[in-house]
Amino acid sequence: MKEVIFIRQNIEKWKSLEKVVDKASMVNPAKLADAYTEITTDLSFSRSHYPKSRITLYLNNLASALHNLLYKNKKERYSRFITFWTQEIPEVMYHSRKELLYSFLVFAISVLIGIVSAQNDDSFARLIMGNGYVDMTLRNIANGEPMKVYSSSSPFQMFLSITYNNIRVSFITFVFGLMSGFGTGFILFRNGVMIGAFQTFFFQHQVGYESMLAIWLHGTFEISAIIIAGAAGFALGNGWLFPGTYSRGYAFKQGAKRGLKIIAGLIPVFITAGFIESYLTRHTEYPTFIRLSIILFSLISVIFYYIITPHLKHHGKSKTKN
Fold it and tell me: 3-state SS string over the chain?
């Protein structure tokens, strides 16, 4: 790569890193670490290709300044816990907005496939959910208790089991991004088809409305977590497949770091979904208004925190810089 192209591609980023140095007291340690990693990668490239250039000297000085600031501020403040949720997660979600869109589209298309397949093949639900579960649900429907499965065990036992399973599924969705993103796509596809077939099965037996009130009471958070975890998996896969101007190893590490932050940011969602499914979903006698309110509140919360807030904070920062 010619030196002028290298400079042109990265000059805006270097200017933003200069601002990080200038306002170091207002920057959290994690962002300093990210800035230092980025500049040392560019410095290594510059030393290899333009060892006697002034740009190498410039990058070396910038890297030294960031290094000093990083180790000076090595002890993180207690406020890091707060800034993680108020700053870091919205920031990483903004930079992962394309991956989130891809994840949603894959899942939505998979749900449609599940719906169409279940409508055109009566045996499809058994293929997806298993004969045991289908037969049990048919007995519950015949007895006038289609959602009895949600009250089959103690709330606390369900809470532990469901929360663990939600975390496991989301983490697998993320880790499967190692398979160049195709693994994450497969997990999303499988879960989407399952949801589509599952919901269609209840509509075919005239209890679709009641099933939606029960399933989406907890499912709004649960399914959102799977889709967001899909964005984490795609971020991991994209870092490996599309490194851009960085080395593949560095781009992969950045994608992995971004994905892990997204998964960590889902912890409250896992817990809330598990709590609702264990303690609230079983109460099918609750008024429709209350259950619809919980579903709507859950949906608004996810959209606001994971989609709207990242855009507001990012554009707010851009205006401040300007």
Answer: CCHHHHHHHHHHHHHHHHHHHHCHHHCCHHHHHHHHHHHHHHHHHHHHHCCCCHHHHHHHHHHHHHHHHHHHCCCCCCCHHHHHHHHHHHHHHHHCHHHHHHHHHHHHHHHHHHHHHHHHCCCHHHHHHCHHHHHHHHHHHHCCCCCHHHHCCCHHHHHHHHHHHHHHHHHHHHHHHHCCCHHHHHHHHHHHHHHHHHHHHHHHCCCHHHHHHHHHHHHHHHHHHHHHHHHHHHHHHHHHHCCCCCCHHHHHHHHHHHHHHHHHCCHHHHHHHHHHHHHCCCCCCCCHHHHHHHHHHHHHHHHHHHHHHHHHHHHHHHHHHC
Q: Roughly how many angstroms between the first and final C-alpha of the chain, as a whole number?
A: 31
Whether 246 has a pLDDT exceeding 70, the answer reads no
For residue 219, the model assigns a pLDDT of: 93
pLDDT tens column, 217-238: 999 999 999 999 999 999 988 8
pLDDT at 53 over 90: no
Write down the pLDDT at residue 241.
Answer: 77
Contacts of 112 (CB under 8 A, 6+ apart): 196
* Residue-level pLDDT at 8: 85
Q: Are 234 and 184 in contact (CB under 8 A)?
A: yes
Amino acid, single-letter form, for residue 16? S
**In this structure, which amino acid lies at residue 238?**
N
pLDDT in tens, 77-86: 556 678 888 8
Look up residue 193 and give its two tokens. 């088809």
